[in-house]
């Protein structure tokens, strides 16, 4: 078989279903929505509406969230069809292997590794910063040497709290999915309760005059704001990683993915409306916009509770993404494109080796490496996966065998998948040249790994 035929050889769905049969199907639609909300609503809801309103959209940030939600919705429907028809682990990586072939699947998986690992590492640093600030309110301070990445010139050597929180979450997930999902659900409820508290308290201080002018930066500012807040919705794709562990995936996966987007959109719009109504948008270019607005109206106690909500938001985001990244790494190991020990399932029905590997990598990044602009790479990794999934719907429908499987179907086919893919490409054009250059290095590294190791150890190659 020639190299061109080899890299575009498509994976067999039956082999995936057999390999993933060791997972225990325990997740319900409610669990999936909680996972999605946990990933999507993080600290961004307490920060992003303020900074984007102040610098880009004004009170029109409300419409920016609506526009971004529409863009995300079309991608979400494409994401909902795939796990409904193909209930396997690995999210877009596995879908790519089945409908495009192994090379595209690998590129998509490599993009998701970039998204998940960097996202958690970045958020772990943010969680550590919030935690240190929180305990400082009680007069407690950790030694400076253990509160930052390796930077001897500034007196920091390791971010110990970032490492501890990542390891704690990984341990909780590894102990069993039921326990970790139950904990995630409780914290998601707590987080939403705190957001609702802000909405109720803040609504008493809303002055309609603060919404005038509604679009101080013009219509262009509203659309530019939509391009920025679009990334606030990223994370719902992680829900699809759990397809092999979902009860009645054909029904529950679409509910989980689309339900996540609907609920998160409502909360983002409401927070943006109340926040810009409480105070002038010009004052909101701060790192803690919601807390800042509450302090302006002398609600310091509620502001303190919101800080707990920020910690809860970051915690649930890390739970979902560490869980998803371990399932992704398991899937790549299952196929032999990375060392096969990553594709093993232990007695607790979890991919322990994949979990340990993910934890070590994220801990090193979050605890020792200054991430800086690398966090922007999360966006490009996500959008590449979105693009392949959107156009992949067309190939999925054209496959006679796969098209016979009943499940959720994207409406207005083939127009909606094409529109979704084009919108994702447009969003990628809005990213900086620096992000593109750095991502190019990442994908060149990925291709080197694939052609030097993956293609020779591939389980699909061994079957031919």
Helix-strand blueprint:
Layout: H1 3-7, H2 13-19, H3 29-40, H4 44-57, H5 61-85, H6 91-99, H7 102-136, H8 160-174, H9 177-203, H10 218-229, H11 249-278, H12 289-296, H13 300-334, H14 352-368, H15 377-398, H16 400-403, H17 415-429, H18 433-457, H19 459-463
Helix pairs in contact: 3-9, 3-11, 3-13, 4-10, 4-11, 5-10, 5-11, 5-15, 5-17, 6-7, 6-15, 7-8, 7-13, 7-14, 7-15, 7-18, 8-9, 8-13, 8-14, 9-11, 9-13, 12-13, 13-14, 15-17
Written description of the protein model:
This protein is mostly helical and 464 residues long. The protein is built from 19 helices and no strands. It has helices at residues 3-7, 13-19, 29-40, 44-57, 61-85, 91-99, 102-136, 160-174, 177-203, 218-229, 249-278, 289-296, 300-334, 352-368, 377-398, 400-403, 415-429, 433-457, 459-463.
Write a concise synopsis of the structure shown.
The protein is mostly helical. Helix content is 69%, strand content 0%.
What percent of the residues sit in helical stretches (DSSP H or I)?
55-70%
Question: Terminal Cα separation, in Å?
Answer: 9 Å
Question: How large is the count of helical segments?
Answer: 19
Tell me the series of helices and strands, N- to C-terminal: HHHHHHHHHHHHHHHHHHH
Shape: globular
Say how many strands there are.
0
Whole-number average pLDDT? 85
Percent range for β-strand residues = under 5%
Low-pLDDT stretches are none
Biggest sheet features: none
Structural class: mainly alpha
Q: Specify Rg, calculated over alpha carbons.
A: 22 Å
Membrane topology: Multi-pass membrane protein
Pfam families: AA_permease_2 (PF13520)
Subcellular location: Membrane
Protein name: Amino acid permease
């Amino acid at each position: 078989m020639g190299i061109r035929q080899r890299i575009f050889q498509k994976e067999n769905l039956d082999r995936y279903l057999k390999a993933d049969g060791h997972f225990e199907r325990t997740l319900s639609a409610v669990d999936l929505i909680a996972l999605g909300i946990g990933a999507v609503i993080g600290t961004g809801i307490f920060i992003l509406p303020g900074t984007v309103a102040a610098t880009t959209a004004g009170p029109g940030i409300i419409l920016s969230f609506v526009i971004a939600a529409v863009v995300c919705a079309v991608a979400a429907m494409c994401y909902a069809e795939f796990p409904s028809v193909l209930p396997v682990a690995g999210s877009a990586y596995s879908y790519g292997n089945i409908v495009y072939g192994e090379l595209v699947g690998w590129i998509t998986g490599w993009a998701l590794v970039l998204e998940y690992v960097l996202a958690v590492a970045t958020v772990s640093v943010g969680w550590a910063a919030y935690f240190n600030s929180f305990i400082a309110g009680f007069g407690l301070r950790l030694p400076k040497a253990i509160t930052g990445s390796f930077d001897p010139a500034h007196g920091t050597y390791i971010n110990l709290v970032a490492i501890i929180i990542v390891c704690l979450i990984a341990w909780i997930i590894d102990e069993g999915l039921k326990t970790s999902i139950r904990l995630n659900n409780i914290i998601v409820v707590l987080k939403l309760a705190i957001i609702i508290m802000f909405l109720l308290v803040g609504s008493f201080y809303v002055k309609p005059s603060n919404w005038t002018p509604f679009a101080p930066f013009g219509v262009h500012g509203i659309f530019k704001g939509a391009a920025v807040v679009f990334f606030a919705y990223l994370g719902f794709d992680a829900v699809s990683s759990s397809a092999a562990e979902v009860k009645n995936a054909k029904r529950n996966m679409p509910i989980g993915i689309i339900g996540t987007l609907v609920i998160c959109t409502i909360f983002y719009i409401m927070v943006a409306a109340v926040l810009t109504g409480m105070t002038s948008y010009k004052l909101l270019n701060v790192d803690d916009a919601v807390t800042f607005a509450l302090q302006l109206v002398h609600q310091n106690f509620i502001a303190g509770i919101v800080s707990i909500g920020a910690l809860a938001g970051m915690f649930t985001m890390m739970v979902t993404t560490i869980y998803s990244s371990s399932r992704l790494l398991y899937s790549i190991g299952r196929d032999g494109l990375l060392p096969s020990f990553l594709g093993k399932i232990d007695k607790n029905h979890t991919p322990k080796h994949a979990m340990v590997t993910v934890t070590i990598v994220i801990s090193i990044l979050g605890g020792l490496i200054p991430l800086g602009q690398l966090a922007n790479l999360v966006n490009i990794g996500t959008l590449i996966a979105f693009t392949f999934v959107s156009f992949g719907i067309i190939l999925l429908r054209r496959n006679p065998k796969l098209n016979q499987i009943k499940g959720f179907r994207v409406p207005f086919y083939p127009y909606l998948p094409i529109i979704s893919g084009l919108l994702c490409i447009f969003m990628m054009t809005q990213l900086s040249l620096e992000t593109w250059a750095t991502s190019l290095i990442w994908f060149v590294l990925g291709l080197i790994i694939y052609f030097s190791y993956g293609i020779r150890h591939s389980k699909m190659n061994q079957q031919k």
